[in-house]
Design goal:
CATH architecture: Alpha/alpha barrel
Distance between the termini: 17 Å
Shape: globular
Keywords: Carbohydrate metabolism, Cellulose degradation, Glycosidase, Hydrolase, Polysaccharide degradation, Signal
Radius of gyration: 22 Å
InterPro entries: 6-hairpin_glycosidase_sf, 6hp_glycosidase-like_sf, Glyco_hydro_9, Glyco_hydro_9_Asp/Glu_AS, Glyco_hydro_9_His_AS
EC number: 3.2.1.4
Strand content: under 5%
Number of domains: 1
Catalytic activity: Endohydrolysis of (1->4)-beta-D-glucosidic linkages in cellulose, lichenin and cereal beta-D-glucans
Enzyme class: hydrolase
CATH topology: Glycosyltransferase
């Protein structure tokens, strides 16, 4: 990696002056962003479940979950562990996949050296989601592993001996939220593979349509159907209407089928389109849907989508200091702050939406209207860059919150496989309770979970590099997924 430039006092003063003019001084160049991009994609190899391929690059991992689904006579090998545990949760996995695909759709042309790896990261998930969606008619398998039992152990995924129970939603026990998000993931991925693998793309889109129909026809929240095993881990707090609109929007973009346009027009008002919401996450898709649909108005002047442009502007204006609509909270060091637990998930989704909306606006000569003031695409890029640079180390702690990037990054990651000796270094089984010695250890993780972005610092820019402090030190796939798009954008600048 290129050496960091040393900033003189004069340069620091210039940066301070420039920041007052809303320009951004950065310690990073395109080489740094490219390095971070490569690592952020590599992280997904550390989260893989199933039989690892011969080209697996994160070599300290081994095969795991090889019998997933077998006791239920269904093949559920593959997919991703969501974070530092060994459960395959369907809702965050599908959202991760949608955001990985969206990153490639918008910014894939800026990641030529990593596009194959990015597609492989998507396909590792879509192969699994296809199996989960097609194994049994009118059924979607949405989780593998009992999270309550899993969280009582500190075990490598290769050693798992906790119950690998399988959970599903069906016509009798619906899960419109997780099903519609799965449909969104398959539809978005179908766009990614349209040119490189047309037959796979077609299969993804056809399955997305079937899963969406199931989600819409048999309505209900999976939190009600599977409450004890999905709550409080990934409860659908926002309900399922946001996912239905999100899923329909992605299928429309992938298929250009006017029936989905009609669905959006008929249901938008009752599915959150009239509500302004200011966070975008695995749970709440409203603002992401508005940004996605605003493209239809900006590109083609579809008047029915003007509403989404207005609401997207409201969201954008809420983030920009100095506008009449500003309401976001930033730390003293300049980091967007939304929650005490895993705050960086909101930062990476926000940075991605800022850049995506900037792209949509820039392609059409548009601006975001903030009352009597306006915000340009350049303003959005500048704000996104501050968030990206903060994560990579331009912050009060001078710490990168991406593992393996920069000179200083967290060493005590809340992640079972990373914190325990590799199966290659320690082939003997490490039992459920024996692993807690490693959780409590003050030693750095023996395996570097390269590219993982952690939960991040608190509202005062303070970070505790402590494996037990999962709120700050745990990675997650849905933190990394949108960051890939953001990094690709800046790598190309």
């Amino acid at each position: 990696m290129a050496p960091r430039p040393t900033f003189s006092l004069t340069m620091q003063l210039l940066c301070l002056a420039f920041s007052m003019l809303t320009l951004v001084c950065s310690a990073f160049n395109s080489h740094d962003y490219s390095d971070a991009l490569q690592k952020s994609i590599l992280f997904f190899e550390g989260q893989r479940s199933g039989k690892l391929p011969s080209n697996q690059r994160l070599s300290w991992r081994g095969n795991s979950g090889l019998s997933d689904g077998s006791s239920y006579h269904v093949d559920l090998l593959g997919g991703y562990y969501d974070a530092g545990d060994n459960v395959k949760f369907g809702l965050p996995m599908a959202f991760t996949t949608t955001l990985l695909a969206w990153s490639v759709i918008e910014f894939g042309s800026s990641m030529p050296g990593q596009i194959d790896n990015a597609r492989a990261a998507i396909r590792w998930s879509t192969d699994y989601l296809l199996k989960a969606a097609t194994a049994t008619p009118n059924t979607l398998y949405v989780q593998v592993g009992d999270p309550n039992m899993d969280h009582r152990c500190w075990e490598r995924p290769e050693d798992m001996d906790t119950p690998r129970n399988v959970y599903k939603v069906s016509t009798q026990n619906p899960g419109s939220d997780v099903a519609a998000e799965t449909a969104a993931a398959l539809a978005a991925a179908s766009i990614v593979f349209k040119n490189s693998d047309p037959s796979y793309s077609t299969k993804l889109l056809q399955t997305a349509m079937k899963v969406f129909d199931f989600a819409d026809r048999y309505r209900g929240s999976y939190s009600d159907s599977l409450s004890s095993v999905v709550c409080p881990f990934y409860c659908s707090y926002s309900g399922y209407h946001d996912e239905l609109l999100w899923g329909a929007s992605w299928i429309h973009r992938a298929s250009q089928d006017n029936s989905y346009l009609a669905y959006i027009q008929s249901n938008g008002h009752t599915m959150g389109a009239d509500e302004d919401d200011y966070s975008f996450s695995w749970d709440d898709k409203r603002v992401g849907t508005k940004v996605l649909l605003s493209k239809g108005f900006l590109d083609k002047s579809v008047q029915e989508f003007q509403l989404y442009k207005v609401h997207s502007d409201n969201y954008i204006c809420s983030l920009v200091p100095g506008t009449s609509s500003f309401q976001a909270q930033y730390t003293p060091g300049g980091l967007l702050y939304k929650a005490s637990e895993s705050n960086l998930q909101y930062v990476t989704t926000t940075a991605f939406l800022l850049l995506t909306y900037a792209k949509y606006l820039g392609s059409n000569g548009g601006i975001a209207s903030c009352g009597t003031s306006t915000v340009t695409a350049e303003n959005l890029i500048s704000l996104a860059k501050k968030q990206v640079d903060y994560i990579l180390g331009q912050n009060p702690a001078k710490m990168s919150y991406m593992v393996g990037f920069g000179e200083k990054y967290p060493q005590h990651v809340h992640h079972r496989g990373s914190s325990l000796p590799s199966v290659h270094a320690h082939p003997d089984h490490i039992a459920c309770n024996d692993g807690f010695n490693y959780l409590k250890s003050g030693s750095p993780n023996p395996n570097v979970l390269t590219g993982a972005i952690l939960g991040g610092p608190d509202n005062r820019d303070s970070f505790s590099d402590d494996r037990n402090n999962y709120q700050q030190s745990e990675p997650a796939t849905y933190i990394n997924a949108p960051f890939i798009g953001a990094l690709a954008f800046f790598a190309a600048q």
